[in-house]
Specification:
The protein is an alpha/beta fold. The chain is built from ten helices and twelve strands.
Length: about 325
């Protein structure tokens, strides 16, 4: 019997990360918009992008969602949904002032960080929030305890941090960061503040960690890693950085397959493919089809973890919000 020859080391192949794509919080938020449109009809206003993905936002817009930057843009008596990234208490107050019925699609893992911030602020701790300035999640978390929170935007920012009492300092983090960079920042903070305490549980989202682990596993084998995701998606941008840090020859972020540059494939035999936590798998399938037509037909799964977490939909979808909005609008 003739043995099957081993594939040539120069054979073209794709390493496909698992898990990839939608996390439980994103899935919940997107379904919440779809259910709200089904239940209440359009328009449903959404403050900021429900998740950071161009395709998802465009798809929901076609179904009747209207995305706005500020609560003031939403007509009084309407329904507004808050994105998965969460909002500050002042935004809830603005919505109440405008007599808006609200649906809160904040990811439960982000809500956990918000509650931690409130609790530590009540105990008069200085809270060092590790995250990226201007990111919606950071703005929302900071708004929970603005007088107690100091933003630390990476390891290089540590030297600028000052606290009132070295013995009452805690760190929290944005959920979508690079695990390695976050821990580097924490290590530097602990050098400066030896009594720094950590949050009761890891703030970085399980899905962010799992996607980074999968990329690390395939990064050293890949001449090129393609991350499917939008440029304003923090966790997608981090995957590119993690791939390069793991030894990938090159790595790029694309929203769609047609954004891939043919030149990236020069001299490449192994391509790693993954996607950020706000990316539907149809976009990954498009990338795999694009690669297949260029000889990359052999797809191997690189599995880092099993994910079975799900979150229930926002409780507001079980109420008649159109009637509530009308009542608010007619109230004196």
């Amino acid at each position: 019997m003739t043995a099957t020859p081993s594939p040539s080391p120069t054979a073209k192949r794709v390493l496909l990360a698992a898990p990839r794509g939608y996390c439980a919080g994103v899935d919940r938020a997107v379904i919440a918009v779809e259910k709200a449109l089904e239940q209440y009809g359009s328009p449903i206003y959404v403050r900021h992008e429900i998740v950071h993905n161009k395709y998802v936002v465009q798809t929901l817009e076609r179904k009747g969602a209207i995305f706005v930057e500020e609560t003031a843009e939403v007509p009084e008596g309407s329904i507004v949904m808050f994105s998965a990234h969460g909002v500050a208490p002042t935004v809830h107050a603005e919505a109440a002032e405008r007599k808006l019925a609200t649906i809160d699609a904040t990811c439960p893992l982000v809500t956990k960080v918000h509650k931690e911030a409130v609790r530590f602020a009540q105990d008069d701790y200085d809270i060092l929030l590790i995250g990226h300035e201007g990111h919606e999640e950071v703005i929302g978390t900071s708004g929970e305890a603005p007088d107690h929170i100091t933003l630390v935007d990476g390891p290089e920012d540590v030297e600028n941090v000052e606290v009132r009492d070295d013995s009452k300092v805690v760190w929290l983090s944005q959920t979508t960061l690079s695990v390695d960079e976050t821990m580097e920042t924490v290590d530097r903070l602990k050098e400066k503040f030896p009594q720094l305490i950590s949050p009761p549980s890891d703030d970085i989202c399980y899905a962010t960690q799992n996607r980074q682990i999968a990329v690390k596993q395939m990064g050293g084998q890949a001449d090129l890693v393609i991350v499917v995701g939008s440029k304003n998606s923090s966790n997608s941008v981090r995957l590119v950085e993690v791939a390069l840090g793991a030894g990938a020859g090159d790595a790029h972020l694309v929203d769609f397959a047609e954004e891939i540059d043919e030149a990236w494939l020069e001299g490449v035999s192994t391509v790693g493919v993954t996607s950020g936590a706000s990316v539907p798998d149809v976009l990954v399938e498009g990338v795999l089809e694009w690669l297949s037509t260029r000889g990359f037909e052999d797809v191997e799964l690189v599995k880092a973890a099993e994910e079975s977490i799900t979150f229930s939909l926002p409780k507001e979808l079980r109420r008649d919000l159109r009637a509530e909005a009308a009542a608010l609008g007619s109230a004196e």
